[in-house]
Write a structure and sequence with these properties.
Shape: globular
Number of helices: 6
Number of domains: 1
Structural class: alpha+beta
Order of helices and strands: HEHEEHEHEEEHHE
Number of strands: 8
Length: 208
């Protein structure tokens, strides 16, 4: 077998693996219990503390669907992926909480459980496939006393990733994965706080 044919077969096999990897799988933006708007509007978020546990597995594999907890590509590969995820999430959650401007100072304590964005290989190779999965645990405490206001709960902020021609067009307009993830996490926080539309929902998509 010549190398050209072998490469073509390899690419085809990779496509089959990606598209078949999560057929029938369900992804979601979800949380069990949101915060009542009349409660959250009394808060003033003075701290967003995001922890990205070093026990989470990072992958730099240049493949379509790495098996890892953290997959992130848009920031420099030489950087610390845990720190990069921390910065993205802190910014996104602050944006989502910006509309609550009450008198009670609170802090959000967040622990990441998954941050799996689309690789460039998947983004460039496929059309209408791929999922950004962003999952975390959030707790609200009184910033002055440390008393728990909202017990820790899981939030899932998964959403369909753009790929292929759609993502190329989006990038030409200045969009990035980071901007899209930030926007979706912010909307998820607004939904959870009761200050924005309820965006919870499920979807099925290949390549998650």
């Amino acid at each position: 077998m010549n190398f050209t044919r072998r490469g073509a077969l390899g690419g085809a096999l990779a496509a089959v693996l990606l598209l078949g990897a999560c057929v029938g799988s369900t992804f979601e933006t979800a949380y069990d219990q949101g915060v009542a708007a009349e409660v959250s509007r009394g808060w003033r978020v003075v701290a967003v503390n995001v922890t990205v546990p070093r026990t989470l597995v990072v992958s730099e594999a240049k493949t379509s669907l790495p098996k890892a907890d953290i997959v992130w590509r848009e920031d420099p590969e030489t950087g610390d992926r845990y720190d990069q995820v921390k910065v993205i999430m802190e910014n996104a959650i602050r944006q989502g909480a910006a509309s609550v401007r009450g008198s009670r100072a609170v802090a959000f304590n967040v622990t990441m459980t998954r941050f799996h964005a689309l690789t460039f290989e998947a983004e460039n190779r496929y059309q209408n496939a791929g999922v950004h999965t962003v999952d975390f645990i959030i707790q609200v405490v009184d910033a002055n006393t440390g008393a728990t206001i909202v017990e820790a709960q899981q939030i899932r902020a998964d959403f369909p990733a753009l790929s292929g021609d759609q993502m190329r067009a989006a990038r030409a307009q200045g969009q990035t994965q980071k901007k899209m993830i930030t926007a979706h996490v912010a909307k998820t926080i607004q939904s959870w706080l009761g200050t924005g539309p309820d965006i919870r929902g499920q979807f099925s998509r290949s390549g998650g």
